[in-house]
Amino acid sequence: MALNEECSRVRELISLELDGALSRFETAGLRRHLKACADCRAYATDVRQATGLLRGTALVARPTPVTVPAAERGRAGRGAVRVGAAAAVVASLAALVAGGLTTGGTPSASAGATASGSGDLSAMRAIRRQQLAVSTAADTPRIRVIEID
């Protein structure tokens, strides 16, 4: 039997109710639907009984502890590191390309200094100061304050 959307949603709410995760509003809607729908009421009864049975059963201790071999733990960690490293490389390249182009679409002097790997930090800073001075002077609107006595 195919369920309609409301019955599907109510069956999710039944599970959430058993965990105490429903608001008062959701609980009221659930109760209203259960009064009107015999199929959902039967489902709720079955789920509540099964949950009560499971929760009432004592836990059984495992005879041996569960362990994960070190090699498998390392593989999962290395995969995450590789993904993070790849993302960092892509972000760095994107920043280099975006920052290395001037408004005309040609490589700037700072892009050449970075690409050559000169490592001359003071020269790169001087180039950047010059870029900022030019872009600020051209892009900044000039405001003149006139004092009237």
Report on the structure:
The chain has six helices and no strands. Among the domains are: 7-56, no CATH class; 93-141, no CATH class. The chain is mainly alpha-helical and 149 residues long. The protein has helices at residues 5-18, 24-36, 38-56, 70-99, 109-116, 121-139.
Number of strands: 0
The sequence of SSEs as H and E is: HHHHHH
Helix content: 55-70%
Average pLDDT rating: 74
List low-confidence stretches. Answer: 102-118
Rg (CA only): 33 Å
Tertiary shape: elongated
The number of helices is 6
Structural class: mainly alpha
Distance between the termini: 87 Å
Strand composition percent: under 5%
Q: Major sheet: size, sense and barrel closure?
A: none
What are the key terms here?
149 residues, mainly alpha, 6 helices
Write the layout of secondary structure elements.
Layout lengths: L4 H14 L5 H13 L1 H19 L13 H30 L9 H8 L4 H19 L10
Helix pairs in contact: 1-2, 1-3, 2-3, 5-6
Give a short overview.
With 149 residues, the chain is mainly alpha-helical.
